[in-house]
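Hi all, posting the design record for the shared folder.

TITLE: backbone redesign
STEP: 1 of 1
STRUCTURE INPUT:
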């Protein structure tokens, strides 16, 4: 299926994942706080919406931080990895194979990882 299919929520069975994709990752409405926070580009706005989604811990990590960050993760930890189709492609492939990374969202340039141990491993290509 093409990326746009899942980006619009089609084919995503989990209500939680559907809400995350539609209302957080690809929300098209303009929040008043964007101007207050000085968020001028979509990447920063997306990170802001992820923070509003209220994970216990939000980690934006580099390859050097990945293993260190996993030492203190919980079920409500959300991790973001930038440039997964470029300089961090190797790290992203490692994440996809990691059994602790239960739900992953491949957004072409950014990856989002959920570590909820109660969930079945799933990778969405958005």
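Okay, here is what came back for every position:
SEQUENCE:
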């Amino acid at each position: 299926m093409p990326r746009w299919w899942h980006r619009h929520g089609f084919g995503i069975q989990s209500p939680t994942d559907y809400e995350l994709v539609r209302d957080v990752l690809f929300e098209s409405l303009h929040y008043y706080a964007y101007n207050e926070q000085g968020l001028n580009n979509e990447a920063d706005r997306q990170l802001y919406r992820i923070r509003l989604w209220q994970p216990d811990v939000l980690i934006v990590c580099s390859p050097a931080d990945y293993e260190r960050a996993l030492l203190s993760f919980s079920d409500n930890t959300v991790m973001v990895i930038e440039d997964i189709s470029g300089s961090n492609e190797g790290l992203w492939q490692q994440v996809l194979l990691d059994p602790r990374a239960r739900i992953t969202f491949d957004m072409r340039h950014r990856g989002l990882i959920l570590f909820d141990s109660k969930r079945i491993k799933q990778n969405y290509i958005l």
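COMMENT: The helical segments are 3-7, 15-25, 33-37, 42-52, 63-70, 89-97.
Let me know if anyone wants the other runs.
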